[in-house]
Amino acid sequence: MESGNGNNRQLKSACYSESEQFHSPSVIVIGGGFAGISAARALCDASFKVVLLESRDRIGGRVCTDYSFGFPVDMGASWLHGVCRENPLAPLIGRLGLPLYRTCGDNSVLFDHDLESYALFDADGGQVPEELVTKVGKIFESILKETGKLREENGEEDMSMLRAFSIALERRPDLRQEGLASKVLQWYLCRMEGWFATDADTISLKYWDKEELLPGGHALMVRGYRPVINTLAKGLDIRLNHRVTKVARRYNGVKVTVEDGKTFVADAAVVAVPIGVLKANSIKFEPRLPEWKEEAIANLGVGTENKIAMHFDKVFWPNVEFLGVVASTPYGCSYFLNLHKATGHPVLIYMPAGRLAHDIEKMSDEAAANFAFLQLRRILPDASEPIQYLVSHWGTDINSLGSYSFDAVGKPHELYEKLRIPVDNLFFAGEATSTRFPGMVHGAFSTGLMAAEDCRMRVLDGYGELDLLHPARGEEFASRSVPLLISRM
Ligand SMILES: Cc1cc2nc3c(=O)[nH]c(=O)nc-3n(C[C@H](O)[C@H](O)[C@H](O)COP(=O)(O)OP(=O)(O)OC[C@H]3O[C@@H](n4cnc5c(N)ncnc54)[C@H](O)[C@@H]3O)c2cc1C
Questions:
Q1: What's the domain of life for this entry (predicted)?
Q2: What is the pTM (predicted TM-score) of this model?
Q3: Considering only CA atoms, which residue is closest to atom 33 of ligand 1?
Q4: Sign of the C-alpha dihedral, residues 86, 88, 94, 99?
Q5: What are the tens digits of pLDDT across the range 250-291?
Q6: Cα–Cα distance between 342 and 113 in angstroms, integer?
Q7: Using a 6 Å cutoff on CB, does residue 34 contact ligand 1?
């Protein structure tokens, strides 16, 4: 499929003889995250000749299990959202026997946690009474209900969640909180911002809850996501350190150029790079993508959430699933995931989102780790310093340029679908092309399978051999059902 520097006059004949062309439809997959790998897997299983071009020196993309502490730590995705058979990743995770640690059941006000095991503190180190946290949680839910009414009244008009909150509180002064309770309320808002990786003044009132949450609650991948992606990637032709800079589509195929000028040709391409990378226009499309596609790219929101993982020599914090610090603004609040509870390793993960995440990304790794540690020391003054730390940079890393997509104020939810719709022989996959599960690993995985099937139909239609090859469904991973191994049932 590789055609050498710019030497590509006739697309198909540059890589295949006539007979090979007939029997081996070919695809280039751009991006080796869950979406790209699942598309490549499915097309390979459907007897396509597939080459996957990945800009980094590793696969996985925003799934990034780091082993430098001597055990797995997920610096990107770590939860399986929807611990149930309907989750498209469940068959594979079950078959691999990977343990899960459930952090909440369905419909928690805190999205991926419930209030079973936590400790919230005021900035001076005083612990917030549980009854107050529960009470304010109910108030937070009531405010959300009020914002729902506001949404109905407003019809087509949209506004930010922050604005909707303040209108709701004007209308219902009984829901307003003072003192410590008001800080706890800000902390709930902070957790909402963490879920969407953006500040409340950018989240759409109209569409914030349009993503689909599968049943079964949310669970951490105790051994990290890496084994899952590695299994999917087995046997694929993956070219690491291949940053795509140009995608040219012609009536008879695509030609893809990478940074060093090397080109690849195939019948079709699956573009599975992050929305942030598409927004940055670092890949040139020739001819330009249609206006509706460019608009979808420009208008979809993408937020930033980061992780600062701190490895300690011993556990000195309470034996709870997470620690939190309340403050008078969401920006001032903190959240630490206690990996020790789920995995037995003495690690706390500080997770800032939105503007705070952006600001911290401007710091050196050392300063960022210090910042996280200082937040911890505010509540646990005797905390010993971490022996190792890891800092993610999802917002500025040129391979991601954001953590995941969200519905921005005033922009339609259909943008996800518009981003997915193919353009000739270019197919699009990735979390931001998923209308059902945007921002999630299983969403990215599903869109890869969908793009693969669309691609198979289109390419084989062109070949006039629609019945010859198997459906691109990743059958091997989807069919057998093995129960998931879940702790904290
Ligand atoms: C901090 C954080 C926490 C998260 N937590 C969760 C969670 O707990 N659960 C959950 O379900 N989801 C979570 N997510 C979201 C989840 O990680 C993503 O939705 C999902 O992994 C996206 O997969 P993808 O294949 O669409 O994109 P990616 O995984 O980003 O894959 C795209 C690939 O394209 C490559 N690429 C970029 N530019 C080029 C180029 N020019 N040429 C070639 N290759 C290129 C990238 O290197 C990357 O490998 C989290 C994300 C982050 C950042």
A1: Eukaryota
A2: 0.93
A3: 31
A4: negative
A5: 988 999 999 999 999 999 999 999 999 999 999 999 999 999
A6: 13
A7: yes
